[in-house]
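Please predict the structure of the following assembly.
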Amino acid sequence: MRVRVDSSKCQGHNRCYALAPELFDVDDLGNASELNDGVVPAGLEDKARLAAANCPEFAIIIEE
Amino acid sequence: MTSVYGPVADWQSDFDHADPEYNRNIHAIWEDLKAAGCPIARTERYGGAWLPLTHEMVHEIAYDTDHFTSRTVVVGQIKPHEVDHLPEFASPPAPIGGAPPITSDPPFHQHARRLLLPAFAPKKIDPLRPEIERMCNELIDKMGDKDAVDAAVEYSQHIPVMIIAHMLGLPLEDADRFRSWVHLVLESVNAPREEREGRFHEFNEYLETHIRDHIENPREDLINDLLNAELMGTKLTSEMVGGMVTLILIAGIDTTWSGIGNSIWHLATNAVDRRRLAANPDMIPVAVEEFLRAYAPVTMARLVTEDHEFHGVQMKQHDWVLLPFPAANRDPEQFENPTEVVIDREVNRHSAFGLGIHRCIGSNLARLEMNVAVKVFLERFPDFELVTDEETVWSTGQVRGPRRLPVRVLSRR
């Protein structure tokens, strides 16, 4: 599984970083980005889905 | 202060979001409007305003900065274009507005926003946790061993103002004045104009005095940072710093105070959720998101830039449009069982902090304050209940939360 943040949609709500800091980071301006090229380590798939399901801007894309 | 508009005749064609009845019965009013096939209400008050109720409409308006300007985000009796020729009342025109970046449109908006964002980034905000926790405990210590406490007056209203005053570098002794100005700007929008104008003058003078003092005596705080910041290659004018400070002071206080109050109100009226959270504090962060969804405090406003049709209604240039994020958060198209408060809701794309380019800059701070305030309240008062509905007093206007919230303490630590 991979995750990707669509930076044209991200507005810095920081939900992904709060819910899955193993998968996402945020910069000083609140913009989120995926860690580890977006590769989701085994066992963290649910966290990835949770992050996507809580993004108000629909900015997180999951590729399975 | 009394309203200049009088009682509401009906909520479809004569709504008044600043009528005390609105915030008190907000959910029933929306349900009635939707059941009557009215997804967008209208009023001729305030010179004409719209109230869309679906997530789709709120989302569309928040993203459409061409048709909807942010020049003024609080609905008032006077529209900015009506006073542009009067120097004592005129506010900076779009795309800047009087309190950037909340009153700004693209392309200026993002330049102003970038000046404020770093101070509110998660990694800057997270370290405040122990200080907020200490403050919350201190407020509860002060309550002594009374049977009933006011969770709004003795608790939630103090937490955000302490942090914001400290960040800006304004004296905490002035907290009561800050709250009275917040009331002026947001709550008394339908009060007679002559009652309001003198108070605005007092607020502006206060800010000017403190900004001047910061120029003469530099120190480490956000006002100082803004005075030294550059925007598109030039230093900010003290008027623009004043506008930004106004934004942070007004937006940073009663919004979070309402968010904390709404959370405690829910727990005071729901024994199952209260006991569940008291026994499982690890659930608080997810529960807080649900309180934010179901009781989102903030409704924003926009002004229509040109006549156009919107979902079957004819919007006119200079019409107000309210952006009720709390109504969007209860749209069945977007949320399963939207009227039910599910404290472990997993899928929760709520828009309590707005949508699009104006996402609340202080959202990380607000979330931290709400999480800590709820956690400490439940730690110290594992069981409590609402004294009575009648004694709960709700705010009026675009920010909704309890201003008086007496709760009976059933157990304490």
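The radius of gyration of chain B is 21 Å. The mean pLDDT of chain B is 95.
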